[in-house]
Design a protein that fits this description.
Cofactor: Zn(2+)
Distance between the termini: 21 Å
Radius of gyration: 15 Å
Shape: globular
Strand order of the largest sheet: 6-1-2-3-7
Number of strands: 7
CATH superfamily: Medium-chain alcohol dehydrogenases, catalytic domain
Pathway: Metabolic intermediate biosynthesis; 2-deoxystreptamine biosynthesis; 2-deoxystreptamine from D-glucose 6-phosphate: step 3/4
CATH architecture: Alpha-Beta Complex
Largest sheet: 5 strands, antiparallel
Helix content: under 10%
Protein name: 2-deoxy-scyllo-inosamine dehydrogenase
Structural class: mainly beta
Number of domains: 1
EC number: 1.1.1.329
Family: Belongs to the zinc-containing alcohol dehydrogenase family. DOIA dehydrogenase subfamily.
Length: 122
């Protein structure tokens, strides 16, 4: 799936990256932004249950599902963990309009009452 981010949070991890505390893991140029919400703008083949315009948030951890940690239910410590916005491009890509790839299995629906855009862009 592809999302247009509405909001991207900056958290302590992003500050550690900015200050160089994660240089061994994050290489420049990097596209940060692992805390994101937005709308679906494109759904790929074989993806079901999602539609253009759906409001979503993304769990930014992409795991392999095959290592001992994953098989024990501990995907957050997968040996091949891809932390979106740290290990792979995140939601602050700066494209116009901004777009961000997000695996459907990591995407969660937002309540319809949640506003995703300010300044009249809802």
């Amino acid at each position: 799936m592809e999302l247009t981010p509405a909001y991207v949070g900056i958290c302590g991890t992003d500050l550690h990256i900015f200050h160089g505390d994660m240089d061994a893991r994050v290489h420049t140029p990097a596209v940060l932004g692992h805390e994101m919400s937005g709308r679906v703008v494109r759904v790929g083949p074989g993806v079901e249950g999602w539609h253009h315009g759906d409001r979503v948030t993304v769990m930014p951890l992409r795991w392999d599902g095959t290592c001992p940690a994953c098989l024990s239910g501990h995907q957050h410590i997968c040996r091949s963990l891809d932390f979106i916005g740290i290990d792979s491009p995140g939601a602050t890509g700066g494209r116009c309009p901004p777009r961000c790839p997000a695996p459907a299995r990591l995407t969660r629906a937002c309540r319809s009452a949640l506003r995703l855009a300010g300044r009249g862009r809802e």
